[in-house]
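Model it.
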Amino acid sequence: MKRNKHNNLFGKAVLMSAFCMLVVSCAKIVTPSGGEIDRIPPKAVRFTPAQNSTHFDKTEFRIDFDEYIVLDNVREKLIISPTPKVKPEVTAKLKTIYVKGLDSLEENTTYIFDFADAICDFNEGNRLSGFKYAFSTGETTDSLIFEGRVSDAFSLKGVANKYVILFADTNLNNIYATDGQYITKTDSNGWFAFSNLSKRAFRLLILEDKNQNRRFDLPTESVGFSSSAITPYVLDSTSSETKKQNTFYYSDLVDTTQKLLSSAFWDNNVFSLAFAMPLGEDFAIELNPKSLDGATETQLSADKDTLWIYCLNKKGFDTIDLKITDGNFVEYVETINASARSNKQTEAQFYFTFCAKDSVNYYDRSIICSSMPLQTTKIPAKLISSSDTISIELSQTDRCLFALPKEIEEGMRYTIRIDSAAVGDLAGRSNQAFERTFYLMRRSDYGNLIVNFTDSTFASTAHIFYLTTPKGEIIQQQITQPFENKVIFNHIKEGIYRLKCCSDANSDGKWNSSDWQTGTQAEKVSAFDKLINIKKSWDLEEQWQILW
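Modeled.
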């Protein structure tokens, strides 16, 4: 069959058109090669209507920039305060942003469009941070500001990417599941800024916002809040100092509800129960059948959140009912199907681990951790030095922890060896062989820290002092009782440290986070204003006037 000439011409035209479209679609706007890389973000050159305009009665506005732009995740990043009833459409084309669908705005209201860092230039991706556009549907545009910082209530570090919400209703009990009047977000260092605020009192809320709806409507969402109403102010020469003073504290929600997370049946009639919270020292356990009561051993894990139950009675049974009570928690009942253990049991591993670093603390020689509770409180071992090998016994210090004897010579490098089958656990398993080399530090390798405080108001309550690494890892903590005027940290390795203190108003020996339901702020924390330099064989004494 012959193809006519016209068909051939038409096919060629289609191919040529497709090629041209492909070239155009792949083309990019690029800067000429050579020269310095553009690091300047785009700049707004025209607002239609004008920035801070009044009597706004349009259904759209546009913003023109000095270069080609793109929008990055604008649906999530753009925050409009107050929130309109209908979310507008936001698009970008070439050098212009278009916002349409503004037909549900309230009368006599100032609106702020906070783009955060959603606007980037096309070529290099330079972000325009903190960009806002405002207008008023009334006769005047609100012009007051409020700036501040959100800090972690315990670490005192700035908290990034949290919503900060202002409510016109200053009653804290009324802000649950209601919309805020103004919304912004903290930057990477915890700073935030509100602009174009009206002259009224607000209640401030800091929100985790797990479901990303910008509302405090979940009981599991962590919050921070102002203790009292806050008042916006005029932008002037003193605003920067006011900003520094406006610090608000946020803390993650701590779930104190005890839960049984899981239970497991292991080999040799061993059971384990994992709890969400540590069990108290006065917990009690009841077993059914009653015949097992006198034929069991129980053991808490080192962190007290796992309970091991060893049924030493090897007689067969179908089920075991466990009833566990704790002085701090409610009662838990668990039924374990022991008859199905043949296909559900898991082999429990019995082994030793070295729980210290290469340098062992002279004053804390708990170095060996057992994965299972043992039948004995001592472990036979060999200690090998460059000149000798001696037999020793590791003594139990706490649950599954075992320590070196005090007679071991300081400042020496040793290898500790535990032979296989040296001891057995409560289920009758023998240990695997273990060996590790370490250095036992000298007493002269440590320094001490004495901190004096004389403020009678401060000293009237209990406090908790923390010695930490520069990164915040807690090395030691000490609790002072009311009217004590000093705290001492002994046996500190040479190095650089930080010091902080928290109030312990309820004398429970721990720091407590904020509680929105009761309106209680997190217990106050203060950081010492300089680094602590601990030297070997040296007592460092510091004076600290703690100001909350």
